[in-house]
Specification:
single chain; 73 residues; two-stranded antiparallel ribbon; globular
Length: 73
């Protein structure tokens, strides 16, 4: 499922272009108020998963950490 969702979102970090490791890519909810569930480890239908990742940007772990670090500052 994750591979399909990553490919759906373009296959690389939307901020830096990283695309070497599937496990290093993650989904960041742009508006946390719209978040229904965390993407990782869920076994919902393909349609429900796509609906949720449409609320996200695809980022690598480094960029995801930087996003959250900037949120705290």
């Amino acid at each position: 499922m994750k591979k399909m969702l990553v490919e759906y979102k373009g296959g690389k970090c939307e901020l830096c272009g990283y695309n070497k490791s599937l496990s290093a890519l993650t989904f960041h909810h742009v508006n946390s108020n719209e978040k229904e569930f965390t993407i990782g480890g869920k076994n919902y239908s393909k349609e429900k998963m796509i609906k949720e990742v449409d609320k996200c940007i695809l980022v690598c772990q480094n960029c995801h950490c930087e996003i959250h670090e900037n949120d705290r500052n």
